[in-house]
Specification:
Layout: E1 8-11, E2 20-23, H1 26-54, H2 63-75, H3 91-117, H4 129-173, H5 176-187
Antiparallel strand pairs: 1-2
Length: about 190
C-alpha cells in the first residue's frame, strides 16, 4: 500500500519573514489566500499613505488676506524704531530694546573703568618735563634691575640642573661594587 503524499504549500508571512514549508489542508489554503489578500491590502494602503505624506503642500493664504497684510507692511515707515517689518509679535522688538540697554550699560561701565584708571595720570607738559624725565629714568633703572635679577636666577637654576644631571648620570653608571667602595671611602 502506498502512502498518499500531502500537499505542501508556502505560507507568506508579513514583516519580511522567511516563508515556511507546511502541510496544507483545504481550510489552510483558504486562510492562506485570505492572508495574502490582507497583506496586499496592507501594503497598498501603506504605499498610499507614503504617497500622501510626500505630496502634502503647505496651505496658502487667501488672496484678500495676503493683499491686506502686504499693504499694511508697505504702509509702515522703515525709519521708525518699531519692531522689524515682518514681525507679528513684539518679542523681537523687546529683545532689540534689551540689547541696546545692555550695550549702553556695558559702554558706561567701560568708560567709568577707564576714568578710574586714568584718574591720577598726569599728561606731561613743558612745565613738568624735567620731573617726568627723572621718573622715566628711575623706572628704566628699576626694570633693568628686575631683568638682571631674573637672568641671574635663571642661570643659577641652569647650573643646579646641570649638576643634578651629572650626579644622576654618575649614579646610573655606578655599579654595586663602586657604590660600596665609595661608601667605605667616605666613612674612613
Amino acid at each position: 500500500m502506498s502512502v498518499p503524499q500531502a500537499k505542501t504549500k508556502t505560507k507568506v508571512r508579513a514583516k519580511g519573514k522567511v516563508p515556511a514549508q507546511t502541510k496544507a489542508s483545504d481550510s489552510d489554503v483558504q486562510s492562506a489566500s485570505e492572508a495574502e489578500s490582507d497583506y496586499d491590502e496592507l501594503a497598498r494602503t501603506h504605499r498610499q499613505e507614503l504617497k500622501a505624506k510626500r505630496s502634502k503642500k503647505p496651505k496658502l493664504a487667501e488672496p484678500a488676506e495676503f493683499a491686506d497684510a502686504l499693504t499694511s507692511i508697505l504702509a509702515q515707515d522703515p525709519r521708525t524704531p518699531q519692531a522689524p517689518i515682518m514681525a507679528k509679535n513684539q518679542v523681537r522688538a523687546q529683545q532689540i530694546k534689551e540689547e541696546k540697554l545692555n550695550y549702553r550699560a556695558r559702554k558706561a561701565l567701560v568708560e567709568e573703568r577707564r576714568l578710574l584708571m586714568s584718574k591720577d595720570r598726569v599728561v606731561p607738559t613743558l612745565e613738568n618735563f624735567d620731573h617726568e624725565r627723572r621718573l622715566r629714568k628711575t623706572a628704566t633703572r628699576g626694570v633693568i634691575k628686575l631683568f638682571n635679577v631674573v637672568r641671574a636666577q635663571q642661570t643659577e637654576l641652569d647650573q643646579i640642573n646641570e649638576t643634578q644631571n651629572l650626579q644622576a648620570e654618575k649614579v646610573a653608571e655606578m655599579s654595586k661594587s663602586k657604590f660600596l667602595d665609595l661608601l667605605k671611602a667616605k666613612t674612613s
